Amino acid sequence: MGSRCLPCQAVFVPPRALCPRCDSSAMEWQRMDGRGKLVAFTCIAIGTPAMLKLGYGRENPYCTGVVELEEKARVVARIQGVDTRNPGTISVGMPLRVDFLREDGGSGSRTVLAFKPLTAG
Amino acid sequence: MRKKRKLSRGVALVGAGMSQFGMFRDRDSKDLFLEAFQAMIASVDKGLDPADIDAFYLGNYSNDFFVRQSHWGAILSDALGLVPRPATRTEGACASSALAFREGVFAIASGFYDAVLVGGVEDMSKGATEVVAEGLGMAAIPYERDVGFTFPGVFGTIATAYFDKFGASREHLMNVTIKSHDNAARNPKAQLSATLEDVMAAKKKRAESKGRTVPDWPDPKAFLRDPRANPVVAWPIHLFDCCPISDGACCLLLVGEELARNFTDDPLYVAGIGQASGRGLHASEDLTTFEATRYAAREAFDMAGIAADEVQFAEVHDCFSIAELLHIEDLGFFPAGHGYKAVEEGQTRLDGSRPINTSGGLKCKGHPVGATGAAQIFEVWTQLRGQAGERQVPGHPRLGAAQNLGGTGGTSTVTVLERR
Predict the structure, then answer these.
(1) Domains of chain A, start order
(2) A54-101 confidence digits (pLDDT tens)
């Protein structure tokens, strides 16, 4: 979910209570369709403490990236279903769809925003 | 809307000193700061009576986390014998002491004080690498950290955006690293004071003495391409694209412009200062530029009444090699997308048209985060006064700049110093 500013129609994910463009606080909820494209990415070999606990590391890097949604808002997310040991196979601009993850965030289970290639099963 | 800024009283830099940068098991913030303070006093040509210091501004990011002790302004003030004069700490992540410098400039420009000590310190090496990474991560944007971004990860992401937009590659990042090592080898205070050829020779010797297969790298790029020598951290960022974990301190002495000649016949003047804030990865419309750096540069250069190309050399915030490319473009030294070509052509080398990070940069001089902003200004001071020895920028430069970044672009500052 994101928010849409009623006066200027700008869309924000995560949602904002105050529009940084026009200072309006008149916002409505906006549901995202969950499709977008990869703007930029990285494959992390030395991860955050929470990711190391989940078993990610040098031999098993994870991918994070910036995704531009069809609604034009940009989000940061985990990118699943890509070959993180061969980052050359991952390309900027590739179409993605949302694929939420449940994982242990250190203080219990949580939902993580994730995407996978549109072509993946 | 943006007006040209000016100081209501001119401010001069008349003393500067830094500690050795490195990882020191047996030296804490107080030891390092005293070393920098004594070096600063020794640098004041006509002498300084510490009793003449009116106030103290200290940049420190997170000794609270790194060594479980906060309130370093007062602690160091006591150690230096400055009590009861006021001590104020500033925090702006890796730009903490650039913010202290600005506060010092404002305090003198307002006429409130005549002489101000500006310092920066960080003591990062006492904990495990994961602890340091966690401490630095506290300056990242929570939304980004929660999906698994690390600092190298953020800069790796910026690098893929830059590569995609401008056709650059990892090979171009290597050019930045090679230059940083070449410069640092001429800087005795640098943490990694060695060329990559030196690093390669040491590794070969070590393999030989341990009876292992001696690696055969024909040149520094072959070394940097070897995943065993230079492993990936957050693709395309590898180990040698990253600054080290560092301890260090730096001290600067600012005075009212009309008082400068009481301290030295060779003062430097604060020609321009700029500071701006930026946003996170997801909120940035273009990942190949730091909005805050562009704004801070415009503000500083407008205040100095100069164009970017009049700045003869600069220290820029190269926490990761890719950041140096963005910053030399955002400062206006090279057009967008041309920074990597300029580095490849040698334009940013010591003998190039626009030397960048003559100190070795954060990559090789070291990056004790709270000390970095002040230490960049220390390098500009050293160069403008012709005291940089083997790494001296030729032609007796008159204008130099320092650009300091906090977090992943949340804070950026630009300072222009001038020799008149």
Answers:
(1) 1-31 (no CATH), 35-117 (2.40.50)
(2) 999 999 999 999 999 999 899 999 999 999 999 999 999 999 999 999
Whether B152 has its CB under 8 Å from any CB of chain A: the answer is yes
Q: What pLDDT, in 10s, does the model give residues B175-193? A: 999 999 999 999 999 999 9
Is residue B143 within 8 angstroms of chain A, CB to CB?
Answer: yes
Higher pLDDT, B39 or A103: B39
Q: Which pLDDT score is estimated for B2? A: 64
On chain B, the residues whose CB falls within 8 A of the CB of A50 are 148
pLDDT digits (tens, 9 = 90+) for B281-317: 888 999 999 999 999 999 999 999 999 999 999 999 9
Rounded to a whole number, what is the distance in Å from the CA of B296 to chain A's nearest CA?
A: 20
B131 reaches A (C-beta below 8 A):
no
Read off the pLDDT of residues B348-368 as tens digits, 9 standing for 90 and up: 999 999 999 999 999 999 999
User: Residue by residue, what is the 3-state secondary structure of chain B?
Assistant: CCCCCCCCCCEEEEEEEECCCECCCCCCHHHHHHHHHHHHHHHCCCCCCHHHCCEEEEECCCHHHHCCCCCHHHHHHHHHCCCCCCEEEECECECHHHHHHHHHHHHHHCCCCCEEEEEEEEECCCCCHHHHHHHHHCCCCHHHHHCCCCHHHHHHHHHHHHHHHHCCCHHHHHHHHHHHHHHHCCCCCCCCCCCHHHHHHHHHHHHHHCCCCCCCCCCHHHHHHCCCCCCEEEECEEHHHECCCCEEEEEEEEEEHHHHHHCCCCCEEEEEEEEEECCCCCCCCCCCCCHHHHHHHHHHHHHHCCCHHHCCEEECCCCEHHHHHHHHHHCCCCCCCCHHHHHHCCCCCCCCCCCECCCCHHHHHCCCHHHHHHHHHHHHHHHHCCCCHHHCCCCCCCEEEEEEEECCCCEEEEEEEECC
Shortest distance, CA A31 to any CA of chain B (angstroms): 18
ipTM of the predicted structure?
0.95
The residue of A43, A56, A76, A89 whose CB has the most chain B CBs within 10 angstroms, and thus the best one to mutate to test that interface, is A76
